[in-house]
């Protein structure tokens, strides 16, 4: 019996050590990703953004001196550059976590919804209910936002959906985020090993958020996150 107790204890210790290791690994991956995304966001805004601004200015200048038959083409190219610049700036905002600290969670999600709508690939909507709660733990807000981004990216890649609906409900003790699409759906059990699903679930575990993913073929997919408010 003593031997069996020791054996069971060793097994429990091994399981706990593995859980701790997995949690630290996910945390490290999250930190590395945030640093990378922040760098890419700044590069988009500062370098590529400035090049697009200069290109737009050059096209505007060219529009004033070209012949009338070419003016419409130059003006059209100028408009495309302006739209591209707006898209690059919106994308840089969605990648840079510093802006979430500055703008707040709701505004950052709204920027993402507007960016997705501008792609013309899907129609997105955002509904916010309840008394707005500012995150005491800003890192949790970033993780929730990244889960939303991961879900949205998967919808665009695979779901063939026409609509994406996001609902943020501020409750007394928790925040509920519901994301749903009307796409073709998928078999969750068969797709569970996919990195996208694993990333979302592991991130939810990091902040003690309840993670519920449901999908029905030819109906759509719904993700519900119940996040209990946390201090630092």
Description:
With 232 residues, this protein is an alpha+beta fold. It has 2 domains: 1-95; 121-232, Heat Shock Protein 90. 65% of the residues lie in helices and 17% in strands. The chain has 7 helices and 5 strands. The chain has helices spanning 2-63, 68-95, 97-103, 105-119, 138-159, 188-191, 195-206; strands at 123-130, 163-170, 174-181, 210-216, 220-228. It has a 5-stranded mixed sheet with strand order 1-2-3-5-4, with helices on one face. Strand 1, helix 5 (138-159) and strand 2 (163-170) form a beta-alpha-beta unit. The longest helix has 62 residues, at 2-63. The protein is elongated, with a radius of gyration of 23 Å. The model has no long low-confidence stretch (mean pLDDT 80).
User: Strand arrangement, largest sheet?
Assistant: 1-2-3-5-4
Question: On the 0-100 scale, what is the average pLDDT?
Answer: 80
- Full CATH superfamily name of the largest domain: Histidine kinase-like ATPase, C-terminal domain
Low-confidence stretches: none
Shape assignment: elongated
- The H-and-E topology, N to C, reads as HHHHEHEEHHEE
Relative strand content: 15-25%
> How many strand segments?
5
């Amino acid at each position: 019996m003593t031997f069996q107790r020791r054996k069971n204890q060793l097994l429990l210790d091994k399981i706990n050590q593995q859980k701790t290791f997995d949690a630290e690994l996910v945390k490290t991956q999250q930190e590395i990703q945030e640093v990378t995304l922040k760098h890419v966001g700044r590069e988009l805004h500062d370098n590529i953004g400035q090049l697009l601004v200069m290109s737009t200015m050059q096209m505007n200048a060219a529009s004033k001196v070209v012949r009338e038959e070419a003016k419409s083409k130059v003006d059209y190219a100028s408009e495309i550059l302006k739209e591209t610049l707006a898209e690059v700036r919106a994308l840089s905002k969605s990648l840079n976590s510093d802006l979430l600290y500055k703008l707040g969670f709701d505004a950052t999600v709204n920027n993402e919804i507007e960016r997705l709508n501008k792609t013309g690939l899907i129609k997105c909507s955002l509904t916010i209910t309840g008394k707005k709660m500012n995150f005491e733990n800003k890192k949790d807000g970033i993780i929730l936002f990244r889960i939303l981004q991961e879900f949205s990216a998967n919808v665009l890649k695979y779901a063939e959906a026409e609509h994406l609906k996001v609902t943020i409900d501020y409750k007394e003790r928790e925040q509920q985020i519901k994301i749903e699409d009307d796409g073709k759906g998928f078999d969750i059990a068969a797709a569970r090993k996919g990195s996208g699903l694993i990333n979302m679930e592991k991130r939810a575990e990091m902040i003690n958020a309840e993670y519920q993913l449901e999908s029905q073929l030819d109906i759509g997919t719904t993700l519900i996150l119940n996040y209990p408010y946390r201090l630092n």
